[in-house]
## 1
Amino acid sequence: MNPRGRYDQAASLSVNTALSSPLLSRFDLIMVLLDTRNDQWDMRVAEYLLEGADLAAAADEWWSFERLQAYVALVKVRFQPRASSASERVLTRYYQIQRQRDPASSARTTIRLLESLIRLAQAHARLMFRDTVLLCDAVTAVVLMESTMLSASLLGSIDTLHTPFADDPDQEYKETEALVLSRLGLEGLAEQA
């Protein structure tokens, strides 16, 4: 959905989209993609396209759409993940911090926020073919939520549209996990989990 006119970062999401706060609170994730001016990113995109990147050739290495659909259907039925104590602590603490920090955005800080976090963490556990919501699933849910908030309070502003894939995703996850746990005041949780 495009905002009414130009997106005003000083105004609330409700004002920019002309949707009421109660309606907005029903969405688990609301991704706001602002195509801000970024010369370095624009150059990377232009070089990629001008070099004749052939996504069709690379697609042979990926799962087909039908295989991906079958996998999602399988994990949706097979797994009903239950939260571990570590994942519960992360989700609960993040929810508490959001309630304390964001009185202006009451649409996002209702009990529905916690319910959304739980659903996102469970979905990640399913995607990873697990019956238990682990610490990494909760951290991923928090990062997803932070990525959708323009005024993200925990990780700062995340430019979702201009973020490249990590060269070492495992190392990037470890760094992100440490940052999330530190900001939540749960530094020793990774060793306990």
## 2
Amino acid sequence: MESKKVNFAEKMKEFMRKYDKNADGRIELSELAQILPTEENFLLCFRQDVGSSAEFMEAWRKYDTDRSGYIEANELQGFLSDLLEKANKPYEEPKLQEYTQTILRMFDLNGDGKLCLSEMSRLLPVQENFLLKFQGVKLDAEEFNAIFAFYDKDGNGFIDENELDALLKDLYEKDKKEMTIQQLTSYRRSIMNLSDGGKLYRKELEIVLCNEPPM
């Protein structure tokens, strides 16, 4: 047992010597990025330049004009430019092009020129990525239709913020998950950025809650 402790301590010293370039006894973000696989390295660095999930959704809605849950690859550079501007992060054109090409390689794996919201949301810092919170409560088409019809009492094809609050609470209670008031407010704000003048239509909510984006 003692030999294992000594071996671990030696490995930690070797690790720190290799990656703690400024010898301050801590691994900084730039140092950590050298350790991670290329994709995780990129995500770690890019997330430092991204603002809130609300800003992400606002930029997304500008380009996903048909509310399909996808944007086209040729719209990606404009989307990233808007996202960085909203976060007040200055960038140079070569860096923007580098971001664009890297994200295309990471997310357009089948080369069909479409980028999915659920995948692209990985660009958000984890604490801002509300879509991750819903991975455990994804609905199939039949479940979604039933729950949307229940909250769209008047059958006008959309729900408002108050109805969305009730829907989110019920979903979490159904899956025996806890959600704080702060989380509820954050999720609602982000989802409502997909709405049209405060009206959250069926197609837009499908993007968040369904197993697959609507076709």
## 3
Amino acid sequence: MPSPVILILGAGPNIGHHVAKTFAAGGYKVALAARSVKEAESTDSQLNIPSDFTKSEDVVNAFSKVKKAFGIPSVVVYNVSASTRPPPDDPFSLPLADFSRDLSINVTSLYVAAQQAVAGFKQLPAGVAPTFIMTGNILNVEIIPGFISQGAGKSAGAHMMWAAADAYKSKGYKFYYADERKANGTAKYMVDGDAHAKLFKGLAEEKTQGPWHQTFVAGKGYQKFASSL
């Protein structure tokens, strides 16, 4: 039986690194798509795909390359985010070019990734229960001054995950917006990569859709707060 495959879009040194390590230890072949990775350093079990997520065609390319090298990914993680910050008291001073660039990463490329993921999920064998996870934060339910472009992006992304979790539930496709919090439910700024990895692995192993808005606390897992949707 072939190894399962995970595609991580946005493979940084914290969340991306820990998610890759955790899934590799679980027998997955891992594809990493990011600006920083070097294709020449790919191995038999890890594929590196240099990618610029301001370009939606790079998202399509990442799916094409992982399918050719390893097969269709049954787990896709969108761990990409952009935030150009205007003064906290003047959010609309952010130049349109900066806002548009951030939205191309936070919204358009996310949409393309989900679209590509679903196209692949439709080709997987019955019983696989494929999973798409977006790394989120508290900005879909709370204002943090200065984060207008990221807040708009996270809100749009959360809506997509919510809509997808409902629309594809009967097909067995799972969609999640993962938002790490402090134990009291407030925003956590220095996020725990290992905690994300453990949550993501658990979500991938579940056979049915759980709460799409995965507010969680390191060491405790999913926690429903007053602001959880």
## 4
Amino acid sequence: MSSGVQPTQECLEKYQELKTGKKLVYVIYGLSEDKRSIVVLKTSDEKDYDKFVSELPEKECRWAVYDFEYTLPGGEGVRNKLCFIMWSPDDANIKNKMIFASSKDALRRRLDGIAIELQATDYSEITRDSTSPLMILNPSTLSVQSARSA
């Protein structure tokens, strides 16, 4: 069920800037003060993933798109994957969690080119370690995946 909340034009423009301009590394989205639209809260060209994670509040929901850069094994080059993250921490207000969950598709459907979609409720779920869905962007696991498919 949709909440009726829609992304602003700026949301779509900043996403296109991240996707095609390669100047931005991430965009963090949230709800407007009146909770009637999705707005851009922060953009950054900072490539430090831990810095990005620290921008996600402990008790408030957010959506984000992060442009992951990773190196293929064997010196085969550098690649990028766009990751859509729905941040809904356990300690967030229940009403806000419901609005964010029901509004996610209004934003996500407008963002073409997303390679990975992740929902996280705790910081441990958005780390780049071996237990995270983001491990596919870890060079050591890339070689394991390619060996399995061979």
